[in-house]
Backbone:
């Protein structure tokens, strides 16, 4: 089981894509549920490719066109420099994160939590959250066993305790037998 673990101090908000035009603007693949969070953002963090180090950067501009996010950063103000950032991640300090409504969590905080079923006990560790149109799907992994895919519906999620890194669920009838 994963045990106590601190929440990440920084949250990833996007992956840098290809350069756009000549003045250092680039496309961002948002990794946040609210793409408007980029508008008005003044500063963010540029993560190293291994995600172990980050560099504070100033946002010159951010705009959204047809649900596409375009950003310019100070110090990367031409096409060649913008293209050199392709694949890197943008992040913010947790204090700068968007405020979540009740009973919602950042995906990065859920990953690694132990998952317990009300009748079967420990099912494994939440290793992935797939975002679909209808609802998210949690992937629960236990070494040597097939993964369980659980729709993240309020009916199935009983309690999330991030301090204890624990999620209590009530599997729908027959779901456990499908996978294990």
Residues:
């Amino acid at each position: 089981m994963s045990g106590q673990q601190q929440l990440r101090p920084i949250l990833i908000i996007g992956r840098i894509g290809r350069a756009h035009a000549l003045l250092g603007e680039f496309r961002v693949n948002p990794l946040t549920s609210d793409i408007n969070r980029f508008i008005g953002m003044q500063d963010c963090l540029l993560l190293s490719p291994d995600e172990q180090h980050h560099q504070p950067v100033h946002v010159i501009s951010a705009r959204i066109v047809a649900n596409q996010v375009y950003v310019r950063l100070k110090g990367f103000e031409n096409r060649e420099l913008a293209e050199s950032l392709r694949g890197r991640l943008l992040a913010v300090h947790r204090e700068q994160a968007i405020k979540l409504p009740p009973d919602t969590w950042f995906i990065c905080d859920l990953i690694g939590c132990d998952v317990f079923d009300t009748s079967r006990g420990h099912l494994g560790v939440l290793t992935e959250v797939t975002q679909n149109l209808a609802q998210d799907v949690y992937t629960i992994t236990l070494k040597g066993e097939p993964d369980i895919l659980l729709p993240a519906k309020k009916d199935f999620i009983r309690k999330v305790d991030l301090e204890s890194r624990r999620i209590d669920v009530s599997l729908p009838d027959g779901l456990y037998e499908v996978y294990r």
